[in-house]
């Protein structure tokens, strides 16, 4: 009888020990899982924040509103906006519309339903004028008139290359030109009557040349 009780007690003690060990191991596994999960969540959160910051940085690398002026050949041009991402930049400029010949040309152009503006411009990094950042992309240029102010806007998108990071830029406008819509209509009519081909050229009616430069600080 005593032998049986002793065996039962030993079994009971072993059961208690195994139960305690099982509980301890379970607690350790749960704690380890929570720690690992916390690290993963923290890492994912850090990566998410990093991606968000990178996206924001690429969405708007440069200041938007500007008030920079440059004068060439008695013509002052003001750069009012420059925005850029890695693959694209947009700038807006304006000048006083005090040229009667230009007013006439623009009136004809708008009446014909066109607001296209012919402009030659360059973009340089860190005042290194040996390498023009403009190239290998698509450009659109438009204008509008409000009162006696000419407003121009240019949008340039790169095919592959990107704008450099953390660098000052210099925008240079070197030419603005316009054609006479009456001369264009005449050239188009003559081409339609001709049997030699469909191409035609329209002479430049008015042209502003200079080196209007604007330093854009990153």
TrEMBL record:
The keyword Transmembrane helix applies. Keywords: Membrane, Transmembrane, Transmembrane helix. It comes from the Bacteria. The chain crosses the membrane at residues 15-33. This is Uncharacterized protein. It comes from Pseudolactococcus chungangensis CAU 28 = DSM 22330. The lineage of its organism: Bacteria, Bacillati, Bacillota, Bacilli, Lactobacillales.
